[in-house]
Amino acid sequence: MTLGEYLKKLRQERGLSQPEMSELAGIEQSYLSKLENNKSIPSNDIFRNLLLALKLELEEFLSGLDKASIRQHYCHIPDIEHWLNQQDTSRAMSQRRYLYICSALIVIAVTLFYIGYSKQVFSEVRFQYESQGVVLEGEPKDIFYRWSRLLDMGDKDFHATKELKRVEMAQRRDAEIYLTNENLGPQFITDVVGGTRLFYLDKEEMVARPVNAWLQVLGVLLFSMGVMGFILERRFFK
């Protein structure tokens, strides 16, 4: 639709005759007729008067016209030229933000995939520590492992004493397992009710953690979104 056709359409929608419209716009009826028949293009001042007569804002008026036609035929009208420049600037900023988002998606995707693949953040090595029982105050921390070596072998009742100690340690034995994905070293000590516990590293084993698989899946998904965003960028901002 041309500018003249659009002016005529808007005038008729408002129930205005050409004389009424020309009077509101402060122009001659003959000149309005030329405008509506595309025999003339309005100056910037007359264009503003037409908008006032139609009670329309510039953007509201131009929304009814094809942008390619506006750019080709009417960009020499200063108000329209300024509006087009604003549109171009806004479009360029939107396009830049869009590309930044697509780039950020790819960077985040690669990071997440690497975290899941390398398993460095969420380790899949599980450490099993074992404690044989509670160590009482004053006893060696490894009493459950070397109690027999602490006995006096020169004691004439050594064998009887050893048997009594063996029974005592067996009764006190209260094994406890501690599992963790963190390497706490070959041993560590924790305070408990009645004394302490000495935990020795018993074994290491690999245990799959779903979070790593999900990170890789999420990484692939975000990477695909970022790449697809770049592919579709021209279509969105053509």
SSE topology:
Layout: H1 3-13, H2 18-25, H3 29-36, H4 44-54, H5 58-62, H6 67-73, H7 78-118, E1 125-131, E2 134-135, H8 143-146, H9 158-172, E3 176-180, E4 187-192, E5 195-206, H10 210-236
Antiparallel strand pairs: 1-3, 1-5, 2-5, 4-5
Description:
It is rod-shaped and about 135 Å long. It has helices spanning 3-13, 18-25, 29-36, 44-54, 58-62, 67-73, 78-118, 143-146, 158-172, 210-236; strands at 125-131, 134-135, 176-180, 187-192, 195-206. Strands 1, 2, 3, 4 and 5 form a 5-stranded antiparallel beta sheet that branches. Helices cover 58% and strands 13% of the residues. The protein folds into 3 domains: 3-76, lambda repressor-like DNA-binding domains (434 Repressor (Amino-terminal Domain)), CATH 1.10.260; 85-116 and 214-236; 125-207, no CATH class. The chain has 10 helices and 5 strands, in the order αααααααββααβββα. The two termini are 21 Å apart. The mean pLDDT is 91. By secondary structure, the chain is α+β, with helices and mostly antiparallel strands.
